[in-house]
Write a structure and sequence with these properties.
Elements: H1 4-12, E1 31-32, E2 48-51, E3 54-57, H2 62-73, E4 75-78, E5 84-85, H3 87-100
Parallel strand pairs: 1-4
Antiparallel strand pairs: 2-3, 4-5
Length: 104
Amino acid sequence: MADANTLQADTSGVNPANGAPEPWRRVLARHERKIGDIVNDPTRGPWMSNHVGVAYPGTYDAFEQQVASAEQLAWRHTFSNGKVYDPGDILIGLGEFLIKQGAL
């Protein structure tokens, strides 16, 4: 069973030995994001899981799943109209547009 310090380090996204941040846990939450920031970053390729010596595509790890979700949802962008929007703003705007078009 893991000790309290190891559990805290896991929860905080740091190396339990030295307290340094784990690079794979970094999410630029609420930071500016441009098209391609994730897919064009060579350090952010598809995740693979390795269990009992077998490689599986994707991840079964809850922390990794949270990172992937946050990368897609927790950003904002300055659009060509000079305004800053986040994914929630975009979805609301898209929904209103679709209602006006009679699609919703």
